[in-house]
């Protein structure tokens, strides 16, 4: 691993926005590291290509997904779960790059969650028009561990709601390099992403990619 990149993954937010007692948006936190992370996503998704999974209700998601880490989040008609193997290839998910782990840990720590060691990274690719409906992240065993979410590429409107699906949500525009961390009392807040608007990002082109780092097991 390139030592300069690792040092850079120490990350400094350009500014911080608090969305709740356990939630912050670290603006521009990924900084220069975003390009290296995007390059790594290219390598990882050669091994475990993006695919549009099916929900338990039988709908195909508009977001295409892949994973890296010891386990990966999957959905199919049998339900949502973490799986040690890519169901498409039968092989283990690609290992999580040290750079990812480092970025996630420094972001968690900046948000007040010490010693975060993610074992799963869900990689979401949103084409223009793709969206994610409101949901809770609740398939992880230890809910004292936060979720760390990095946005790359085209901007997205992130909806951050409350503990009930019907609670009002705040709208936060997330752009390239922004990191959101939520945990503690906010760990089970509903969240989603509005349909991505057409655009062209200098690095990613006409798409948005979001990485969420989790301690799943
Ligand atoms: C997710 O909730 O898994 C993704 C959130 C995002 O794309 O910002
Ligand atoms: Fe989520």
Q: How would you explain this protein's 3D organization?
A:
By secondary structure, this protein is an alpha+beta fold. The chain has one domain: Alpha-ketoglutarate-dependent dioxygenase AlkB-like (Jelly Rolls, Sandwich), CATH 2.60.120. Helix content is 16%, strand content 33%. It contains three helices and 13 strands. The chain has a seven-stranded antiparallel beta sheet with strand order 1-2-11-8-13-6-3, covered by helices on one side. Strand 1 and strand 2 form a beta hairpin. It is globular and about 40 Å long. The model is unreliable at 1-8 (pLDDT under 50).
Descriptive tags:
217 residues; alpha+beta; Jelly Rolls; 7-stranded antiparallel beta sheet; 4-stranded antiparallel beta sheet; 3 helices; binds succinic acid; binds fe (ii) ion
């Amino acid at each position: 691993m390139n030592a300069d990149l690792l040092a850079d993954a120490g990350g400094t937010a350009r500014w911080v926005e608090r969305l709740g007692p356990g939630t912050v948006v670290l603006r521009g936190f990924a900084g220069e590291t975003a390009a290296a992370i995007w390059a790594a996503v290219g390598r990882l998704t050669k091994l475990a290509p993006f695919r549009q999974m099916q929900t338990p209700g039988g709908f195909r998601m508009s977001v295409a997904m892949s994973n890296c880490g010891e386990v990966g989040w999957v959905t199919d008609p049998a339900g949502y779960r973490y799986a040690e193997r890519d169901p498409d290839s039968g092989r283990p998910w690609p290992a999580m790059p040290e750079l990812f782990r480092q970025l996630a840990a420094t972001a968690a720590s900046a948000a007040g969650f010490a010693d975060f060691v993610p074992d799963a990274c869900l990689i979401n690719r949103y084409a223009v028009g793709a969206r994610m409906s409101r949901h809770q992240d609740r398939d992880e065993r230890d809910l004292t561990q936060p979720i760390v979410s990095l946005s790359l590429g085209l901007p997205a409107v992130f909806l951050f709601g409350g503990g009930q699906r019907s609670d009002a949500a705040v709208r936060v525009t997330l752009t390239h390099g922004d990191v959101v961390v939520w945990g503690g009392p906010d760990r089970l807040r509903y969240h989603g992403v509005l349909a991505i608007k057409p655009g062209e990002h200098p690095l990613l082109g006409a798409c948005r990619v979001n990485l969420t780092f989790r301690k799943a097991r």
